[in-house]
């Protein structure tokens, strides 16, 4: 039996997107549960929970849309936790098995999009909550300068934790799982006498003019939260032993996402208390009992850390592999800096509702078909992956099982690109994303079924019509699809590789 080496919490993580050795696989499915729930048990999720009410649904319509969005999103997300233990690396690199070791740049792009969006949202809304509480409790004047300072402090603390890495991040999320859950549930006591369980603004309040289009849009926005984890689950599950039962991994992810109904429903119910107010966070703090307004600072602070950390950590990993001149720490600093600029510009120049709506829409439409292709690939290959072959591009080599055509598996790419484009053409996330075909179903947003259906049909058709080589399927062969006989290209050094990739190949350190 392998002796597991557990790092100290204060020890800076040494691993990038390289394969995690068996001796360093110190996590369990429970940790995967904690880090997901902790990363979503925050004000960023609370804000997403307010959207169904802000869009004009009644209280119980909003609850139904929220539960539906979480359930559907969890179903699509759950398989994404299976890749890390099998490949020992993150999901973007693991996607090279289906998109090619160079084509996996798609996953890196999705990771970057999600990280900037949710890191920004977490710091943004958590900072606003802290400012709102300070204004009420300490009597300070609200200003853009004060908000900018609070954003900077929160953002900087997030980056420090990210630099220390996985072990420190896991500790923070363990605290948030218990601490924020207790604090949020205290809201039942704080607002017990003021909630209106019959809240219903009437049909004239529907943002999209009628019930079903508004209901579907609300569910899709909520669904964006579980979908946003798709590119990141491998960042954490790669530390789980490869022999872990898939059922335990699936249960950890599905259970963690169901648990996010705690912050989601907090957002739904409290949104009815401040309906019509321009700034939900400040308005909520103003209607809260003083003792709970103080606790909201803790909820906001812990939540901002947790969501920001889980978003930024994985992208720092992956960005450093796409741009090998940067190590994990440097890449995290670059992404954090870009996201902070987005926070300031977004806060001063754009509407929060519109910005969040657009980013969540883009994440759902682009990430879900990528996840569908990954899941189908996992099934037809019986969960068989070659760890070393996935690292070929990162180490400045060519060849191996996943080289396909010059490092790109055109089957996966030819399924994902049309699926994402068609999804955007049918999307309706006003006012920033309004596709030309958004009204073909009477105003109901059908972008998700269009993108999912397109990806699934095209990918299955392509791997049937143009079978993948037998060597990618492993000793048991393919499941339900044909395979082509071919000789696997040998892995050789790429003499045109940058010096930074050569260092990764030789194990040298900067």
UniProtKB/TrEMBL annotation:
<feature type="transmembrane region" description="Helical">
    <location>
        <begin position="145"/>
        <end position="168"/>
    </location>
</feature>
<dbReference type="InterPro" id="IPR001248">
    <property type="entry name" value="Pur-cyt_permease"/>
</dbReference>
<feature type="transmembrane region" description="Helical">
    <location>
        <begin position="215"/>
        <end position="237"/>
    </location>
</feature>
<comment type="similarity">
    <text>Belongs to the purine-cytosine permease (2.A.39) family.</text>
</comment>
<feature type="transmembrane region" description="Helical">
    <location>
        <begin position="291"/>
        <end position="317"/>
    </location>
</feature>
<keyword id="KW-0813">Transport</keyword>
<feature type="transmembrane region" description="Helical">
    <location>
        <begin position="356"/>
        <end position="380"/>
    </location>
</feature>
<dbReference type="InterPro" id="IPR026030">
    <property type="entry name" value="Pur-cyt_permease_Fcy2/21/22"/>
</dbReference>
<feature type="transmembrane region" description="Helical">
    <location>
        <begin position="329"/>
        <end position="350"/>
    </location>
</feature>
<feature type="transmembrane region" description="Helical">
    <location>
        <begin position="401"/>
        <end position="426"/>
    </location>
</feature>
<keyword id="KW-1133">Transmembrane helix</keyword>
<feature type="transmembrane region" description="Helical">
    <location>
        <begin position="63"/>
        <end position="84"/>
    </location>
</feature>
<feature type="transmembrane region" description="Helical">
    <location>
        <begin position="35"/>
        <end position="57"/>
    </location>
</feature>
<keyword id="KW-0472">Membrane</keyword>
<protein>
    <submittedName>
        <fullName>Purine-cytosine permease family protein</fullName>
    </submittedName>
</protein>
<feature type="transmembrane region" description="Helical">
    <location>
        <begin position="249"/>
        <end position="271"/>
    </location>
</feature>
<feature type="transmembrane region" description="Helical">
    <location>
        <begin position="105"/>
        <end position="125"/>
    </location>
</feature>
<feature type="transmembrane region" description="Helical">
    <location>
        <begin position="175"/>
        <end position="195"/>
    </location>
</feature>
<keyword id="KW-0812">Transmembrane</keyword>
<dbReference type="Pfam" id="PF02133">
    <property type="entry name" value="Transp_cyt_pur"/>
</dbReference>
<feature type="transmembrane region" description="Helical">
    <location>
        <begin position="446"/>
        <end position="466"/>
    </location>
</feature>
